[in-house]
Amino acid sequence: QVQLEESGGGLAHPGGSLRLSCAASGFTFTSYAMSWARQIPGNGLEWVSGIDSDGRDTYYADSVKGRFTISRDNAKNTVYLQMNSLKPEDTALYYCATGGLRGLSRDQNWGQGTQVTVSS
Q: How many helices (H) and strands (E) does the chain have?
C-alpha cells in the first residue's frame, strides 16, 4: 500500500524559506519519479515540480523556477522541496505524489498534504 507523508509546512514571511519533506513507503521508491503539487483554495491542483527516479533530472513550473528546488534521498525513501524567496501567492496545500515528472497524470498516488502559508 503506497503511503506518502508530507511534513515541514507552516507559516513563513515573504522572502523566507521552508523545506518540505515527503516520506514514502509501501512501494519501490527507487523505481518512481516523484513530484510536488499544490492547491490554492478555490483553484485547481497545480503541478509544482518533478524529479526522476535517480534524481538526475528535475523539472519546475514557471511560477517557482529559480526559487524552489526538488531533491530526493533514495536511501531514506524521501523527497524534498526546498522553497526559498517565498511569496504570498505560494500559500497553498502542498502534496507529494508518485510520478508526475513533468506534470499531473492520472495514475498518481498522493499524500495528505502539508499547509504552507506565506504572510507578513
A: 0, 10
Burial of 86 (0-12, 13-18, 19+ CB in 10 A): buried
Handedness of CA 94, 39, 26, 69 (dihedral sign): negative
38-66 pLDDT, tens digit per residue, is 999 889 999 999 999 999 999 999 999 99
Q: Which of 45, 72, 44 is nearest to 58 (CA)?
A: 72
3-state secondary structure at position 73: strand
Strand order in the sheet with 58-60: 10-12, 114-118, 92-98, 34-39, 45-51, 58-60
AA identity, residue 82: Q
**What confidence category does residue 19 fall into, taking pLDDT thresholds of 50, 70 and 90?**
very high
Task: Count Cβ atoms below 10 Å from residue 17 Cβ, excluding itself.
Answer: 12
Grid cell in block for residue 22: 515527503
